[in-house]
Amino acid sequence: MKLYYSPGACSLSPHIVALEAGIPLKLEKVDTKAKRTASGADFWVVNPKGYVPVLELDSGEVLTEGPAIVQYLADQKPDSGLAPANGTLSRYHLQEMLGYINSEIHKSYSPLFQPETPEATRAERKEYLQRRYRLIENLLEKQPFLLGDKFSVADAYLFTVTNWAKPVGLDLSGFPALLAFQKRVGERPAVREALEAEGLVKKAHA
After folding, report:
1. Looking at the whole model, is its pTM more than 0.70?
2. Rama region for 36: left / alpha / beta (φ>0; ψ in -120 to 50; rest)
3. Which top CATH class is 89-188?
4. Torsion of Cα atoms, 190 then 191 then 196 then 200, to 10°
5. Could you read off the pLDDT of 51-73 as tens digits, one per residue?
6. For the purposes of burial, counting CB atoms within 10 Å of the CB of 67, is it exposed (0-12), middle (13-18) or buried (19 or more)?
7. Domain 2-80+191-197 has CATH 3.40.30.10
8. Is 42 left (phi over 0), alpha (psi -120 to 50) or beta?
């Protein structure tokens, strides 16, 4: 399988999940502005939506949208425990959390990356994110991960999008449990490996 990614973008989430599950992936870097891949392919052909992540299966079929991709990867290795079994209430709680991160947190960051976004809009989006992170903070005050005691694909997604706070100037100092979560997840070997592979952190010396 091949993952089309852009360093630090939401494609980091399935990258982490694949490493956590022990699934080998080929990586193809995408210039999301030029819409070209590292091999020179037209990314619009790969994904008509024009954005990462894209998972190309061995059959040649492609899967898009991060929440769908991470569940697919987790289901390839059910023993990894990265997603509860299909059909269980726990699985629907996972999808509930993925949906919340996707619509309420991930998409709220988008205007903050656009230089043309008016300051009033930036302030409103930051205030909105603070409100939406409060629910996450309340959860993480009681448990180490979003679904309880075990790391899941939802945690990989939350870690990825929350890493965007610093670049856009979002102050998360009022969320100590969230900051502790970011540190805890960032120290996981698979997460560190993904960050290093995407050039987001320096490789540790042996």
Report:
1. yes
2. beta
3. mainly alpha
4. 170
5. 999 999 999 999 999 999 999 99
6. buried
7. yes
8. beta
